[in-house]
Structure formats: structure tokens, C-alpha cells
Amino acid sequence: MTDQELRVGIIGVGLMGADHAERLAHRTSGARLVAVSDPDTARAGGLAGRFDGVRAVTDPLALVGDGEVDAVLIASPGFVHEEQVLACLEAGKPVLCEKPLTMDGASSLRLVRAEREGGRALVQLGFMRRFDPEYARLKALLDSGRLGRLLLLHNIHRNKDVPDSFRSEMIVRDSLVHEVDVSRFLFGEEIAEVTVYSPTPTSAAAEGVIDPQVSVFRMASGAVVTNEVFVRNQVGYEVRCEAVCERGSAIAGRPWGDLYTTAGSGDEGVWGGMVPTDFRDRFALAYDIEVQAWVDATRRGEVVGPTAWDGYAATVVCEAGMASLATGAPVAVDIVDQETLT
Questions:
Q1: In the sheet that 213-219 helps form, which strands lie side by side, from edge to edge?
Q2: Residues of each domain in the chain carrying CATH 3.30.360.10
Q3: CATH number at 6-128+286-307
Q4: N or C, which terminus of the chain has less Cβ within 10 Å?
Q5: Residue 74: enclosing H or E segment and its boundaries?
Q6: Under the phi-then-psi rule, with left for phi > 0, alpha for psi from -120 to 50, and beta for the rest, what region is 94?
Q7: CA dihedral 275, 281, 286, 289 (to 10 degrees)
Q8: Is 117 exposed, middle or buried (0-12, 13-18, 19+ CB in 10 A)?
Q9: Could you tell me which residues come within 8 angstroms of residue 40 by beta carbon, excluding any fewer than 6 positions away?
Q10: Are 113 and 340 in contact (CB under 8 A)?
Q11: Of 154, 117, 140, 126, nearest in space to 243 by CA
Q12: Residue 168 and residue 255: Cα distance in Å, rounded?
């Protein structure tokens, strides 16, 4: 396929899917958006109408089976991912699936097994921070050994606002999941235990929602990761990570060179520049690099970046996190042995 354009279909054209449609149509080389599908047929039709040669397909599984679709980008809700990813595997079509892989570890593991039984890697997970230039440089620095062993990570993940329907468990499953993948990515090992703490919630939180949340991961090696996730900070979108090593530290996502504050005079957070209000602005370049890398690898017949296994592992960690959220106690992460998985 290296000599021809990759014809891509998108399932799910809400906020993220529509953003990816623009990306594929205008900022990705070697690929062409050809079809979209969404339960909201009017929305799918409206999006398709913005691009030449793009069809709206009512049935997402029909899009997967369409002979004019070479690869599929899934940006639908997580509860339909198992069926849709499995359809891609059965059709032998590469798929870039936004997180989560599925809603629970058992179904994620079924997809890992199905991919292995097919004998070909086809799934890439949408953990875009691995493609962010700063996070990628941080990973390269840690792997170089210049700072010695990685001992601690400190992750900050703040969002300006979420709907009232975004409940406490979703902060773990849909937000903290990024810190889960970052921690596994930078350490190169699994998370063994999760503890989620429930501080006094912000007055801006919806009734009954615990926000912010603080969590601690204990890695397989015994190293520790601290995480703050705050989804209604009313300021903007801040994501950064500090890696503490034996001979120094490094921070990804730090936009300042002097005293940093988000105490603006108006509705927007400022630090001498603007705090982005949307994750698509903060990680626009990461998304561009991620999708281009997926297209390039797919045309070569390869998979780069986070795999189905990474999606499974993140889902299992988040399951443990939700259990800990309910009790405040540490919960062990029960991941199957990848080497013996059949």
C-alpha cells in the first residue's frame, strides 16, 4: 500500500471525530478521508458535506466492511468499541481507536486475543501524549540514562470544565487513563497498585462529584507516581509531567520561564501567555503527529505507538482505580502475563 493513498473511514464524529476529519482532510499526507459514520445521521451528513468525495454511512459496521475503506479511525463512545474494533480485526483493516479500548478489562483482553489469533498487529490506541514533542523528548532523555534511574513521576492534568454528566468514576476512566499510559510509557513497566484519594471537592463540582482527585500509582519496580486530576478548575487546560531521577529531573509541559500563575484578571487563565481552554489546542501537534504516524505505518503494513495491549493494561488499571475511588484503599492491578497470553 506504500504507493497509494490510505482511504480512511471515521466512526463517531462528535468533538474528537470531527477534529480528526479536519486533520485527515487538510493536514495528513498519504491519506484521504472517504467515509464517516455516526448514530446522529444529520451530524454525519453535515460533516461529510464539508469535504469532497466523503460519504456518510449509516451503519458503522458497514463502513468497516466497505471495499473503498482501507483503514478505520474509531472515535465513538467506549461502550461500542469492542464490537467495532473486532469488526476491523475480522475484516483485516488497521484501526486507530481513541481511548478507552473498551470499558472493562475482560472485553479489552478479548480484543488483544482476537488480534493475536489473527496473526497480524492492526490496532493502535489513541494515547496522543506519546507523540507530543515534549513527552517524546522526555522519554528519549530517560531512556538515554543521562539522569540515572527514573524514581518518581508527578503528573498534573487540569481541565477548564466538563458537563455535569461527567461523574467521579469518569475522572478515573476517561481522564486519569492518560496518566496511566504516560506512567507505563515513561517507566517501561506495568502499574502494580493504585490508590485514589478524595480531597474536598471544588465548589464548582457537580453535586456528588469528587473533583479534584489525587491518585498514587506503585509501579512494578516499586517506583511511585503521583497524579492530580482536576476537571473543573475554571481556568484552562494544563497538562505536565515531572520526572525525578537519580541525577536530575525534567518537566514536560512547562510553558513558563519565571513565576507562573494562572490567576488572571478575567475569565481566562494567563501566565504571561494564555492557558489553552481546550485539550485540542494543547495537544494539536501531538494529534497531528499521531495520525500521520498511524497513516505512514499503516501504509508500510506496521503498527507504531500504543498497542491493543497498552489499551488493555490501561483499562485494567482504571478498573482498579475506580475500585479504590469507592473505598480510598489501595487496590492491586491484576494484569495477565503478556508472555504467556494465548
A1: 248-252, 238-245, 150-158, 224-230, 213-219, 191-197, 331-332
A2: 130-278+317-332
A3: 3.40.50.720
A4: C
A5: strand 71-74
A6: beta
A7: -150
A8: exposed
A9: 13
A10: no
A11: 154
A12: 29
DSSP, collapsed to helix, strand or coil, labels residue 195 as strand
Estimate the crossing angle of helix 81-91 against helix 105-118, to 10 degrees.
0
Alpha-carbon distance of 232 to 203, in angstroms, equals 10
Q: How far apart are CA 304 and CA 315, in angstroms?
A: 20
Q: From CA 74, how far away is CA 47, in angstroms rounded? A: 16
User: How would you write the pLDDT of the chain (342 residues) with one tens digit per residue?
Assistant: 556 899 999 999 999 999 999 999 999 999 999 999 999 999 999 999 999 999 999 999 999 999 999 999 999 999 999 999 999 999 999 999 999 999 999 999 999 999 999 999 999 999 999 999 999 999 999 999 999 999 999 999 999 999 999 999 999 999 999 999 999 999 999 999 999 999 999 999 999 999 999 999 999 999 999 999 999 999 989 999 999 999 889 888 876 544 344 444 455 555 556 677 777 778 889 999 999 999 999 999 999 999 999 999 999 999 999 999 999 999 999 999 888 776
Cα distance between residue 186 and residue 170, in whole Å: 24
Angle between helices 133-144 and 177-187 (to 10 degrees): 30
Topology at the third CATH level for domain 130-278+317-332: Dihydrodipicolinate Reductase; domain 2 (3.30.360)
Alpha carbons within 13 angstroms on the beta-carbon side of residue 22 total: 8
Where along the chain do the CATH 3.40.50.720 domains lie?
6-128+286-307
Query: 244 with 224: CB under 8 angstroms?
Result: no
E strand residue ranges, 150-306: 150-158, 191-197, 213-219, 224-230, 238-245, 248-252
User: The sheet that has 6-11: what strands, in order across it?
Assistant: 55-56, 31-37, 6-11, 71-74, 95-97, 123-125
C-alpha span between 53 and 35 (Å, rounded):
8
Supply the pTM of this predicted model. 0.91
